[in-house]
Amino acid sequence: MIIYLQIISLIVMCFTQESQMNVPEGFNSSVLASKPLIQDPVAFWIQPDGQLLIAETERTNHGTMDNRTSTFWLKDDLQAETVEDRMAYYRKWRNMRKTGMDFYTERPDRLRSSRDTDGDGLYDESTILAGPFNDHLDGIGAGVITVDDEVWYTNIPNLWRLVDEDGDGIAEVKEVIHTGFGVRTALYGHDMHGLVRGPDGRVYWSIGDRGYHVQGADGEFLSDPRSGAVFRCEADGSGLELFHTGLRNPQELAFNSVGDLFSGDNTSDAGDKARIVYVAEDGQTGWSMEYQTMEGSNQRGPWNQEAIWEVETDENRDLRPAWSLPPIAHVGSGPSGFTYYPGVGFGPEFDDHFLMCDFRGSRKGSGVWAFSVEPSGASYVVKDPEMIISNVLCTDVMFDWQGRILISEWGSGWSSSQSGYLHAAWDPSYQSDPRIAEGRDMAINGMEGKDAFDLSDLLSYPDMRIRQKAQFELAKRGDAVPLKDVLLYSDNSIARLHAIWGIGQIIRSRTSLGRSTKTLQEILIEGLTDGDSEVRAQAAKTLGDPPCPQAEDACIALLSDESLRVRYHAAMTLGKLKSIEAIPFIVGMIMENSTEDLLLRHAAATALWKIGDTPHEKLQDFRVFLTGLNFLVKM
User: Fold this and answer.
1) What pairing do the DSSP bridges indicate for beta strands 221-224 and 228-233?
2) pTM above threshold 0.85
3) Among the residues of 370-527, which ranges form H helices?
4) Which terminus of the chain has fewer Cβ atoms in its 10 Å neighbourhood, N or C?
């Protein structure tokens, strides 16, 4: 079968090697794979050795449905609160499908693994790593990533762990990590996706507004049938947390070099615009799935009437609700794939830039945007958005380990066509950079054989992916001494941030085992008075995860730091500490800020909410606490 696929794919490649994408002047491009080695691609992941993992679907509108084409069950969908509720109304309305309940199992999702076995740069062999995923409630499979030796795959209602134990391209281990996602049908494409590894070592992912009813780390259920959201958990699957909510359809997620999370969220086709979102912890961005059903003079309800989707301006400031965080920019129309430049392979114009796919249903108008984000107070502003690659119906984008941009292309339209492409674009003037091959070789060989000195040195490596791998290896060993030395003595700011994050990983690991973390936390407390504001900010953030009571006084002092980012993270940590002593200082910070910085207001409101949720008689002595809450409510 593999030989047959290889012959067919080479024939196809003869006719598709020239990419039809428009790329920047001086760039080259080509097609690396087409049907049958890639078809109906929703998302992909590229390994350092070139292995391509592709989340593919044939279930669009045939298994995974859409309320716009199934209006008969809309009222039932709006009442659903669990995946079992969704299954119940599937059965109730089974006679609306030509083949009854079988209709939902006739088309599969799958996770494909493709390889270039002869080294000519074209993929020539593939296997189905896992699949078919065609249970009644499945789909669409829309996210894939490797976590150590495992493959994680998102396919509503499950987050899957897959392991290919013998290297034959087929997963022998197939386990559900978490389940209960996608309690409603809503709109197809509003699925679970966005898998990305955070600088804290956790895995983050997103879901569209199909909702969730999932058991969290404390045994309680995280439940919201109306909202899209971002979740995170540890790399072993433990510690599931809700990170951000109120999103509509955040297809992909990406972190920048200082550990902040961003996404592109989609328009509701009612005059609103797509949004770039700074995904702040405990944030709420205002969308509710029911808004999609509201038409006429009240189209989309508060979403439009109260300008919830808009970037805040002087004109709409009094109209927008204070409880909802605004986007930081409007870019594109159909955000899908989303990634951050790791630091090697291209020129300085790519530094600190994100790439975002804009999927619009046809090649015309679709393409890849590039933009940077710059700090603005506690938040960010988007700079210089530009569509740099066009004429490609792109679903996902990544930087590979050969100094190229890889782009997956959907076949056509909005439904499965059993076709697709993988494109590459590159700047030949940077292909000779020796760091490309050096980084790829290190990633392939792994970090296990390197000593602590070499790993510490790699925390300042120009490729962010290598820095992260070195940090994770040091954290895995549980030896904080080299990380402490980098934090205290390195003159490289980025390396010092990785040291903080690595120490944070060790603290969380030791805490989970009931071991003391006092010495490690004292190292981070030193960072609260560092001369580098970003070191202060990240130290404050990490000391809240888990909360460190010894950091309370120093974090209170940081509420008046010259950097608003430092104030933001200090306030968030004081909320996690449930610091009653911090209340007047938090309220004072709000009074000074007024409504100037919305992220700072968010941190203060979140902190007061968490502190106020703590039973404590001393709260009664703080009339200023009530004053502060009243002030927040009136904003």
Assistant:
1) unpaired
2) yes
3) 434-445, 452-458, 464-477, 481-489, 493-512, 518-527
4) N
